[in-house]
Amino acid sequence: MNHLPLIIKREYLTKVKNKSFIVMTFLSPLIMIALVAVVAYLSQLNNDKQRTISILDESGYLSDVFQNTDNTTYTNLSGLNFNDAIALVKEKDDYGLLYIARVDSMDMSSANVKFYSEESPSLGIISGLEERIEKRLRDLKLQKDGVTMAQIEASKTNIDIAQESFEGEKSSKIDNIIKLAFGGAAGYLLFMFIIIYGNMIMRSVIEEKTSRIIEVIISSVKPIQLMMGKIIGTSLAGITQFAIWVILGSVLMIIVSSIFGIDLAQINSPQQEMMDQAMQADGAQAMAENVIIAIGNLPLTNLIIAFMFFFIGGYLLYSSLYAAIGAAVDNETDTQQFMLPILMPLILAVYVGVFTVIEDPHGTVSTVFSFIPLTSPVVMLMRIPFGVPIWQQGLSLVLLIGTFILAVWFAAKIYRVGILMYGKKPTYKELFKWLKY
Amino acid sequence: MSDLLVANSVSKNFGKFKALNQVSIAVPKGSIFGLLGPNGAGKTTLIRIINQITMPDQGTVHLDGQPLKPEHIRDIGYLPEERGLYKSMKVGEQCLYLAQLKGLSKSEARTRLKYWFEKLEIGDWWNKKIQELSKGQAQKIQFIVTVLHQPKLLIFDEPFSGFDPINANLIKDEILQLREEGATVIFSTHRMESVEELCDHIALIHKSNKVLDGKLNDIKRQYKTNTFEVGLKSLHREKVLSEIQNTFQVLPATFKNLNDDIKLNIKLDDQNSPNDLLSFLTAKAEVHHFVEVIPSASDIFIQTVKNN
After folding, report:
1. What was the pLDDT predicted at A267?
2. CB–CB of A213/B83 below 8 Å?
C-alpha cells in the first residue's frame, strides 16, 4: 500500500496551516524589509551629517587642497598657533583638527600630519584626507622635477582588461561579479533552506515521538515511507514559504523604497564597491548592457539543471540526517550533541564557498570540496557559474546521490529503531548498535 | 475452531539482549486471547512483530493461514500501550487520516466515523483539537481509530488505562460486541480482573520465554489444588476443629461471611472426594459455606512467574 501521497499531504497541510508558520511567512519579509530600511535610513543619516574640519597647515603646501563638499566644510585656521587652534576647534565643536607641521622638504611622515578629534574619526574621512594630501604632494614633487600639470593630467589612463577564454568566450569584471552573485545566492539559499527546514523535519519527528502517535502510525505504514513523506511534505511547505517570501519581499521592497524614498541599494557592501568600480569604468548605460550580457554569458541551462539536482540532492541528504536525529532523541534539548556533525560540514561548505571559490573557482581546495558529498552541493553550486566541466558535475552528483542513498539507509535504520525508544538519550555507540538491529 | 493467528518459534534479539526466545502462540478465531507477562517480558516485542513493526530474527507468523505480508496491515487493528494522537490536529481530520492509512476510502471512513461518534456520543468533537480533550476523551478517539477499519484481529495493549470505570465498562462492552461480530482479540494487560472477566485463552511470557499457554479454564484446572473453602457453625468449636485437623490438611482462611464461627481451607488428597469431605463435615457441624478454591488469573500469574 502506498501511503506516501497521503502522508505528504498531511505533513504539508499541517505545516502550512500551523499558526506560527503562517505568522512567520508573512512577518519575516516585513521584519527583513524593516531592518534593511532602518539600516539604509541610518547610514543615509550618517552620510548626510554636516561636519566641519579645521585645517592648520604650517607647511604651506596643502592649505588649498581641501575644497568644501556637500557634507564637509573645511575651515582654514592659518596664522593661529597650535594651542589656540585646538582651543578654537573645541569651542566651535568642530569634527576635528588636521594639523600639518612645518617641514623643510616635501617628504612628510605621520609625525608631521596629525588629526585631533573628540571621538576617533571615521575611516572614510581619514583615508579621504590622506588621499588628497598624497595626490597634492605627488603633483608638487613632479612639478618640482619639471613636469607640467597638463602632462600629469595627460598621464592618467584607465584600463579595463577585456577577458577572453581560449574558446573565445568573452568576459569582464562584471561577468565575475554576476557569477559570484548567482553562485553565492544559490549556495546560500541551499544553506538556509537546509538549516530552516531540516530543523522543521527534526521537530516534527520529535513531536510524533513525544505525542506517542508514532506506534499507531507505523503499525499502518513503513517507517521509511513516513520519513520520506515527512521530508517531502516539509520541503514543499518550505518551498511555498520561500516563494511567498520572495514575492512579498520584492513587493514590499518596491513599496517601501518608493514611499520613503530610501534607495535600499545604497547600503554599502563589498559587492557594491566592486560594482561601483566597474560602473566608474563604464558608465551606467554601458554597465546595464554589460550586466545583461554577463547574465547571458552564464551557462544558464547548466546552472538551472545543476541547481535543481544539487539543491534537491543536498537538501534530501541533510534532511534525512535531521530526521534520524529527531528519531534518536526524545526532546529538542537532546539534539545538540548530534547537531554538530551536521552543521560542521555545512558551515565549512559555506566558508569554502565564500573564501576559496571567489578567490580561485577551479583551485584544488574548491575542486576537492565540490566532490565531498556533504559540502559538494553548496560549493558546486557556487562554482558552476564559473564553468565546471560536465564530467566533474556528473561525478560529484553521482557521489552525492550515492551518499544520499547511504544516508537514507542509515537514517531509516536509526529512525525505525529510534522512534520506538522512549526516555533514553542515546549515545553514538548505541546509535551504531541500532544499525545492526 | 481454527486459529486466526499462529506464531511459530519466534525469536528476536536486540544486540545481545534476547527479547523473545522461540515463542509460539496460536490465537483461535473469535477468542479473546490474553497475552500476559511481567514488565519487560517481551509482550510488546511480540505484538510489534505481529504488527510488522519489527521483523523477527527467526520463526514465522501466519495470519489466517498466510505468512504475514504488508497487506495484512488492513486486517489488524492495534491500540499500543504507548499511544497518542497529533495534538494540534482536529479530531475529525485526524481520524480520517488514520483511517485512510489503514486503507479505507475517505467517504467510507467518514460514514463509519459518523456511526461511531454517535454511538459513543461524541459527535460534537469533530472540529475540536486533541489538545482540547481530556485524556479519557482522547482515548475514546484512539479506540475508534483502532477498530474503524473492521479488522479481523484486534490487539489491545492496556486498553483501559486512562478510562474512568464508566467508560472502561463502555469500552469493555464494545470489545465484547466486536468479538460477537466475529473479531478476534489479543488483549495484553496487567489487570488480572479484566483478564478474568474477558479472556478465554491466555499465554504467559516471562523473561522472553512462553511459560504458560492454553484455555483459561484448563489452566485453572491444572493449577487447582483440590482445596475447599469451608464455613462451619458449631457449639463445640474446639472439638470440631481438632477433629478436622486430625483428618485433613487444614489452612486458615479469610473470607467475608455473615456469622460463621469456623473458617478453613481444607486441602484434599487423592483418596478423598469433595463428597467425602462434605459428609464428614455435615456430621460434625452446620455447613454454611462450601466452595472449591479456584486459582485466580492473578494467582496463576504470580505463582508461575515466581517459580520460573
Report:
1. 46
2. yes
